[in-house]
Specification:
The complex is a heterodimer. By secondary structure, chain A is mostly helical. Chain A is about 75% helix and about 0% strand. The chains are: A mainly alpha, B mainly alpha. Chains A and B meet through helix 3, helix 4 and helix 5 of A and helix 2 and helix 3 of B.
Chain lengths: ~190, ~200
C-alpha cells in the first residue's frame, strides 16, 4: 500500500512529467488558454496515459520479451499509443461532441504527446509490474492534469491582467510556466 | 516453425509487429462500429441557440440550415433576431471570439415586436400568408387575414409583400410574467487593473 502511495506521489509531484521532466509541453502550452478545455484535455490525457501504461505493459511482457524483441519497444509502444488515442477519440466523439469540438486537433495530437511514450518506456526500463505500471501511468496523468488546470486558471487571470506590452501573450505564459517549474523542483527529496 | 523464427530474428519482429497491427486494427474497427455517431450533434446544439424565427435574414432558408452552415465554418454574426445575446452564446459554445452583429443582415430590434393586420384595410390577397415562415397568419383569398400573436416571431417578412401596407409591427408589452431584472451594465471591474483610475 505504501509502495503505491510512493509511486503516486512520485509521479504526480516529484517527477511531474510536465514541469520536472519537461515531457508533453505542447498541450501544456496549447490547450491552457481556457479552463474548460484544459479540464477536458486533462481527462482525455489521463485516460490515454492510464490505458497505454496498461496496454504497453501487456504488449511488453506477452509479446516483446518472450520473442527477444526489446529493441522494438519504441515502435511497438507507438503502435499501442496510436490505437488507444484513436479509441479515445471515437469515445469522446460519441459521448461529448462539444468536448470533441473544443479539443479539436489536440485530441489526435495526444499520440505525439511525448509524456505518453515516456511513461510506457520508463515503465519498461524500470521493470515495474502491471499494477505499478498502471498506477504510474495514472499518476503521470494526474500530475499532467494538476499542472495543466493550474496553469490554465493562471492564464485566464493573466488574459485580463494589465501586462506590459512586450510580455503579453506567449511570453508571460512561458515565464509563468518557468516559475511553476521552479516551484515543482521544490518537491524533489520529498520521498 | 519456432526454430525458423529463432533462426531469423527479423521474422519474429515482423510477425510481432504485423500481428499487433492487425489486432489493434480489429479492435478499432469494432469500436468504430460501436461508437458510430449519427447526424452531427453540434448542429443540434447550435440550432437550439438560434431564435427559431425562421426569418431568413441570415441568407439561409431557416434556422437549421444556418446552424448547419455555422457548423461548417460560416460566420456566426448573421442573426439579427437573436442579436448579440445569441452571438455570444454560439461563440461560447464553439469557443471562438464573439463578433459584433453583421449590419448587412439587419439590425437587432430594441424590443420584441409582433405583426398586426389592420383588418378593415386588408384586401385578402394572401401575399403575407405566403411570406410567413412560421404559418402565423390565418385567412383565405378575398377574405380578411389576421395574425396569431403567440405564433408570430416578429420577423418583419410579411410587411414588405403587403400591397396595401396594412401590417404594423407593434411592440409587445411586457407583462408581469415576462419581466426580469435587467442584466448588469458592465462586468469590467471584477478584476482589478491599473488601467482604470481608482474610485
Amino acid at each position: 500500500m505504501q509502495e503505491f502511495a510512493v509511486i503516486l506521489v512520485s509521479s504526480i509531484l516529484i517527477n511531474n512529467f510536465v514541469l520536472v521532466q519537461f515531457l508533453g509541453l505542447c498541450p501544456f502550452m496549447g490547450v491552457s488558454t481556457k479552463l474548460e478545455s484544459a479540464i477536458g484535455m486533462s481527462a482525455a490525457t489521463t485516460f490515454v496515459l492510464t490505458l497505454t501504461a496498461m496496454a504497453s505493459y501487456v504488449v511488453d511482457v506477452l509479446v516483446l520479451m518472450p520473442l527477444g524483441l526489446i529493441y522494438l519497444r519504441t515502435i511497438a509502444f507507438i503502435l499501442v499509443i496510436a490505437a488507444v488515442v484513436q479509441f479515445t477519440k471515437m469515445f469522446i466523439e460519441k459521448s461529448s461532441p462539444l468536448l470533441y469540438r473544443v479539443l479539436g486537433v489536440f485530441l489526435p495530437l495526444i499520440t505525439t504527446n511525448c509524456a505518453v511514450l515516456g511513461v510506457a518506456l520508463q515503465n519498461a526500463s524500470k521493470d515495474l509490474n502491471f499494477m505499478q505500471s498502471s498506477l504510474y501511468g495514472f499518476g503521470a496523468g494526474a500530475g499532467f492534469s494538476l499542472v495543466l488546470i493550474f496553469f490554465s486558471a493562471m492564464r485566464e487571470r493573466l488574459a485580463a491582467a494589465d501586462i506590459p506590452a512586450p510580455f503579453e501573450g506567449a511570453a508571460i505564459a512561458m515565464i509563468t510556466a518557468g516559475l511553476m517549474s521552479l516551484a515543482f523542483m521544490g518537491f524533489s527529496g520529498l520521498v | 516453425m519456432i526454430e525458423t523464427i529463432a533462426q531469423y530474428p527479423i521474422l519474429a519482429a515482423l510477425i510481432a509487429l504485423v500481428g499487433l497491427g492487425i489486432l489493434f486494427g480489429a479492435l478499432l474497427g469494432f469500436a468504430a462500429e460501436k461508437f458510430k455517431v449519427e447526424g452531427d450533434p453540434i448542429v443540434e446544439q447550435i440550432d437550439e441557440l438560434l431564435p427559431q424565427t425562421q426569418c431568413g435574414q441570415c441568407g439561409f432558408p431557416g434556422c437549421r440550415p444556418y446552424a448547419e452552415s455555422i457548423a461548417n465554418g460560416d460566420a456566426i454574426n448573421k442573426c439579427p433576431p437573436g442579436g448579440q445575446a445569441t452571438i455570444n452564446a454560439i461563440a461560447n459554445l464553439l469557443d471562438v471570439p464573439a463578433p459584433e452583429l453583421d449590419a448587412e443582415h439587419g439590425e437587432e430590434a430594441e424590443v420584441r415586436t409582433v405583426a398586426y393586420i389592420r383588418e378593415d384595410e386588408c384586401i385578402g390577397c394572401t401575399k403575407c400568408i405566403q411570406a410567413c415562415p412560421v404559418d402565423a397568419i390565418l385567412g383565405a383569398a378575398k377574405l380578411m387575414h389576421t395574425v396569431i400573436a403567440e405564433e408570430c416571431t416578429g420577423c418583419d417578412l410579411c410587411v414588405e409583400p403587403c400591397p396595401v401596407d396594412c401590417i404594423d409591427m407593434l411592440p409587445v408589452e411586457e407583462t408581469i410574467k415576462e419581466w426580469h431584472w435587467p442584466a448588469p451594465t458592465t462586468t469590467a471591474d471584477i478584476i482589478a487593473s491599473d488601467l482604470r483610475p481608482q474610485l
